[in-house]
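Practice problem: S-adenosyl-L-methionine-dependent methyltransferase
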Amino acid sequence: MKTNRASDTAHAGAFIRALESTVPAQKRIADDQYAIQFVKPYLQTILRMCRRMPTLQRGLTWVLDRYFPTVVADFICRTAWIDAHIEQAVARGIDTLVIIGAGYDTRPLRLTCLTNCTVYEVDHPDTQVRKQALLGSSLRPSHQFIPVDLADQKELADCLPQFDKPVFFLLEGLLGYLTLTDVEKLFAQLAKMAPMGSEILFSYIQQSFIQQSTQTGYPKRMRKYLDDRGESFRSGLASETLPTFLASCHFQLLANINPLDYATEYLKPRQRQFTLFPIFGLAKAVRVEN
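Answer key — structure tokens:
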């Protein structure tokens, strides 16, 4: 990641969530009324116009989906999927959320289930500085920021408190920007920190997509887009070997989906259409005995 500025991918995710929040309620998949604060002023103006002009919202979403197939749907649907799983975890009694590589995640503000929970955000200092400046008084005392450049592989245990009961770890939009070695080290650290019964939910890039990005077409175009911004994908995971990888870190896989699964759960019920390829993944696992 380029230094001395907030992540471009964090900006992009915030814009897509803000755009989806302008969709009429009956068709809306995810709602993030805070996301608009993170986008540039001229884009804020466009987003406000989208609220008044549904045709503009639909047209802009269509253009983004055509230029970056699957990306828009993935940002929107994974937001809803993760929200639901956090709500379920809190209902089961988990009261601590650790967001690693938080970017412009606004769940501590918009999910009412987190009102009485402690939230730790671990991310690059550049991103956190801007986020705190924009959110200001909206932040709760139980919402704590831990500035860490994850690429440096600083021991997370040195930055976070020792946990004595199950916690929920969220790694959204992070793993693809780390090397495979760093991903393995990160999961090993989490296994040491996580009490039995802790849950981890993470998004990842399919290994096959990384391999295709050196060729032609859309994978190559996305690679160039990210390379130009200093935020290249550095590693991917293979769905078929995910259970084995997690087991080596003392986690048991509970769920594993890709964008093709979004159609049934989120798109068809709302009569929404997006281009979907299985290039990303979402998985949840639980900490088990060594």
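Discussion: The first strand starts at residue 96 and ends at 100. Students who identified this feature from the tokens alone can consider the problem solved.
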